[in-house]
Design a protein that fits this description.
By secondary structure, the chain is mostly helical. α3 packs across α4 and α3 packs parallel to α7. The radius of gyration is 27 Å and the shape is elongated. It starts with a helix and ends in a 10-residue tail after the last helix. About 4% of the residues have low confidence. Keywords: Membrane, Transmembrane, Transmembrane helix. It holds the Pfam family Ndc1_Nup.
């Protein structure tokens, strides 16, 4: 599944969006922290380089830790999104009338479940990332410095990481930094989740157009899977609604003679083609169609 997702452009766009938004949110936090949380000496706490006249290009370990945590969280969230198959169209059944969103505009249970899920996901991600960060500092970095020529390029920026205290003690000495990183990650993941959740809900647009039936048929014949899904979901409500106005709209659809072929013929043909394609996909067990000879 993951290898197939890597071949899609949507996966690349999603990763770029996660990385850009995560780093941007961290940059905003660091700017505000430098303004409202200065160090005892009055200097900014979170700068890219440490304040040292002897070694002006030493990277700030705290900023590097938070920056890489956002990058790791972006990759972890992308993996979660791929495993949840959120980039694929979900042909789910339209909610019943008793579960209609307009009757329950605020579902507290769903909001709480989402926040708890995001918190647990970010918590486990931060734990794994912190362990990986410590492993890189204590094992990988000394090995990289042993390579010829490589140390000459990275020594002006990272030499102080080798002379610091034990990695395990750094975890307890910088516990507030870990908590800060966790809450930044929760905020970032919550923004991603809230931005993507509305895309799972169908949107009714036909009633706002001059010819609702024509809009539905146009959506059903669309090559975009999401437009097709939304059109079929709206068509289900269009067919099941019990009112004189809905009955008149259905009659207009069935009796259409304005277009050639008429809308009912287009609807039947496209529905049969969709069923046939889905059945062939079922027979292939989800595998792509073979290349034409």
């Amino acid at each position: 599944m993951f290898s197939a997702a890597l071949t899609k452009k949507s996966t690349t766009y999603a990763l770029a969006t996660y990385l850009a938004s995560g780093v941007s949110l961290l940059a905003m936090h660091l700017v505000l922290a430098n303004i409202y949380e200065p160090s005892p000496s009055g200097n900014p706490r979170f700068t890219l380089f440490v304040k040292s006249r002897k070694h002006p290009y030493y990277l700030n370990g705290r900023v590097l830790y938070m920056l890489l945590s956002q990058v790791a969280l972006a990759f972890a969230y992308l993996l979660r999104t791929v495993l949840l198959d959120r980039f694929a169209v979900r042909w789910t059944q339209v909610p019943a009338e008793s579960d209609a969103p307009e009757k329950h505009p605020f579902r507290l249970a769903r909001v709480v479940t989402t926040l708890v899920t995001v918190g647990l996901f970010v918590g486990f991600s931060i734990i794994g990332y912190t362990a990986l960060f410590g492993l890189v500092r204590s094992v990988v970095l000394p090995f990289v410095y042993a390579l010829p020529y490589v140390s000459q390029f990275i020594r002006p920026f990272t030499a102080h990481f080798l002379r610091g205290p034990w990695t395990l003690t750094l975890l307890f000495r910088n516990w507030s930094l870990v908590w800060r990183t966790f809450f930044i990650g929760v905020t970032t993941a919550a923004c991603w989740e809230l931005a993507e959740s509305p895309l799972d809900e169908t949107v009714a647009v036909a009633q706002a157009t001059a010819d609702p039936a024509l809009t539905l048929v146009s959506g059903i014949t669309s090559t975009d899977g999401f437009f097709k899904q939304f059109a079929y979901a709206e068509l289900e409500r269009f067919a099941s609604e019990d009112s004189p106005a809905a009955s008149a709209r259905r009659t207009a659809l069935f009796a259409d003679q304005k277009y050639n072929p008429n809308m009912w013929a287009c609807l039947c043909r496209e529905s049969l083609l969709t069923l046939g394609k889905d059945y062939q996909l079922f027979l292939r067990r989800g595998e792509p169609a073979p290349a034409a000879a």
